[in-house]
Amino acid sequence: MSVEIRCALSAFLFYREVPPLGEEHLSKIEGATSIMNLFISLIAILVLTLLALGVAFSAGLAYLLTVIVPYAAFALFLAGFVYRVAKWAGAPVPFRIPTTCGQEKSLPWIKTNPLESPSGLPGVIGRMVLEVLLFRSLFRNTRADLYDQRPVYGSAKWLWFFGLLFHWSLLIIVLRHLRFFIEPIAPWISGISAVDGFFEIGIPTLYLSDIAILTGLSFLFLRRVVVPQLRYISLFTDYFSLLLILGAVGTGLLMRHFFPTDLLQVKNLALGWVTFSPVVPGGIGKVFYIHLCFVFVLIAWFPMSKLMHAGGVFLSPTRNLANDNRRNRHLNPWNAPVKVHTYEEYEDEFRDKMKAAGLPMEKE
Amino acid sequence: MSFVKIPTPDKLIAIRYEPPETSWMDTPTVFRPGTWSYSGAAKNLTALDMPNPRAWQPSDEDWKLPENWQQIILEGMRERLEKYRSFKLFMDICVRCGACADKCHFYIGSGDPKNMPVLRAELLRSVYRRYFTESGKRFGRLAGARDLTVDVLKEWFYYFYQCTECRRCSVFCPYGIDQAEITMMGRELLNLVGCNINWVIEPAANCFRTGNHLGIQPGGIKDMLEFIADDIEDRTGVRVEVPLNKKGAEILFVAPSGDYFADPGTYTCMGYLMLFHEIGLNYTFSTYASEGGNFGLFTSHEMAKRLNAKIYAEAKRLGVKWILGGECGHMWRLLHQYMDTMNGPADFLAEPVSPITGTRFENARSTKMVHIAEFSADLIRKGKLKLNPARNDALRVTFHDSCNPARGMGLFEEPRYIIRHACNHFHEMAEDTIREKTLCCGSGAGLGNDENMEMRMRGGMPRAMAVRQVKEKHGVNRLACICAIDRATLPPLMEYWVPGVTVSGVHELLANALVMTGEKDRTTDLRGQSLEGKTVDETL
Ligand code: HEM
Ligand code: SF4
Ligand code: SF4
Questions:
Q1: What ipTM, to 2 d.p.?
Q2: pTM of the entire structure?
């Protein structure tokens, strides 16, 4: 990619115009950090796709993929998720350490900020709801830059916007998928689908959530690849998680719009899973198998990876505790006695000096 | 203050934010003079029964680590992962979204990517993955894991002592990941093998023995406070008493020792004494609990508890009803978020009630310690103070939210309320640089030493530039704060980046304006500077 395009992209993704660059500046960006992690993730995804293709063309493996793997992946997911959360929950919270982002509840005439500095449970719940559903903290995001020998903090809400776009559309897509698993289809699921396809663009209808998730994912991925700082901190797992979801989304879209699948067969398969009587479907499209592969790998990968932030966010002690430290005592389960310097020892050591200074003492 | 050894401001500000060519795991740590702090002296470690006292410096090749140092560190990590949910969780859930990256004043001021909070955490996380996660054990570097080597340990030292535990990153992180918490763990681990800095360990050792960071002995404290009382008499004509170790006082007052030790803290201390005298408060200082600050917080949770214990012990011994605390940042992080848990319950004290206004400090019901800004704001609100803000007319004031009262307590309005009533000219800095988004002085958490001057000026640059902006726009010449470390470290920061701006505590401003019964005609402020002919240029 040319440097100019990269800078322009970087400016867009990192949210504002960047200052004009000098020569050496350019060369630095061009030669910046190793992108090994990106390449390895791409290769991993490629291998996964080839494997999926192999599965699609082999009857025996198709059995594995449609009858065994679903249960294995789901079991891994459940067990892994519970295990990880239990591990976190099992560790005590010795101190109450909320990060206070607003005025504490103090004097009655001072306006408090119950959501940013909650003084009790309702506030904490409100703070967590904002955090989980609306990414409140990310909404604060700014971008620091040096202009004219001075740091300036520009508004930078793109990450918040596209992050939210991605997560919400993912949620809607997952919910829409429930139509395969439930018979008769619950009205609320049809409701979601109807709203999602409201504009009735194309046949079959293009879902808004599909466009949204593609946009969101592309932004998140490009940002990671293009912004030097982001590339610098990115690990294999960061690219891989995004590509895996992109893979699932991509094949899903292919199926819906270009290589139609027999939806009746899909529904039979899904119902087979939930009734524990799965049968290998006949004549279902190849793309469907690839889609399944991506989804199952994603489900199994979830609990071992950073995707577990979905569970972890609820447990964060800087967010889910009330700022009422001085009002209600917090208990530390492992609070142990420590060696202190007592007043008696202090007075013993400094008795003469205290006497000379005329300070009152316990023992004269 | 000498800046001869560090680059000039215009050189320092030439910061590039591009990461280096080599990946961070392959970029060695260089201990460049001016960017690190001297090692903890053996005598201080010994005084605190801490491991591996020896003579060494971070710039040495050989750090004289114990033979089984890796085992000690890994064992220490295991223990802490089990004891602190914060640690375990923060090791696991970061998605490397980078939202925290440019929020750290050290990154903004240095451009060093390892000062991005996310990478600072990865320094430790990579070792966590290698020894405590399956993927790390199996896939090593591909999983972001690496071995614990001496170079890694040195890197930890360099960067965990380039974090002021200010929690700004935590405000912006979608999961609230708090690098301060990770730095605390990192420092605890380093302490297990005797790697710490003297600017933390010496105050801690002093504090353990004498009750205060500076090692001032009982007579010295009395002299200093009397000296301050003399100054007050000189400026106001009023003689204030200095109650010390007084049994049966209603309130124990605990301040940071910096406030009676050095300018400009002493002016804040004058403010406390004048205020207490004027309202006739029945209180006492203590020589044993002569410090609310606690450099144990920058060492380990255990050390924080050891140094903090004296406050409740002294309150009990003296038989006071409750405790009032002076203007200090990290002191209040500890008092607000840790003290009650560590050394409570304070069931021998009474729920704090202002003897002057009758206001019940409900929010301090359990800990029984009230912040002086809360106390004074209440006095003003209830009309108990006679104030003449015109005496501060020579000052155009801005307010620096100190990190800890801001992000570890939520104390934003009270100091502003006091300033607004004590001064006629108050101007806020830019919104992204105050309140919960406040930028650190760059010298907290034990980093305010002279050998670390370049890093301090870098870390403080974002704060200083925000001050410069209001100086240019509104003619601001006074930076108010409620932190003793700020009062010690902001003056050199201002001298370097924004000459012409002085620093003070909020209670100095309050006392300037405070009309005292029986005072003489006040012709100077607390600093002895004439009030006359200093009206502000209104055209600014
Ligand atoms: C309680 C539920 C969840 C919350 C509150 C949450 C929140 C967040 C936030 C705030 C970010 C950072 C901003 C961003 O990059 O978008 C993020 C990143 C991410 N989330 Fe979630 N998330 C949740 C569930 C999930 C689930 C179920 C998945 C996938 C199956 C997921 C996949 C991702 C990925 C891949 C990223 C990284 C994006 C990147 O690399 O830039 N999240 N999440
Ligand atoms: S903001 Fe939080 S999740 Fe994002 S990189 Fe920083 S620490 Fe990780
Ligand atoms: S706590 Fe403060 S100094 Fe430390 S990494 Fe976060 S922003 Fe930087």
A1: 0.94
A2: 0.93
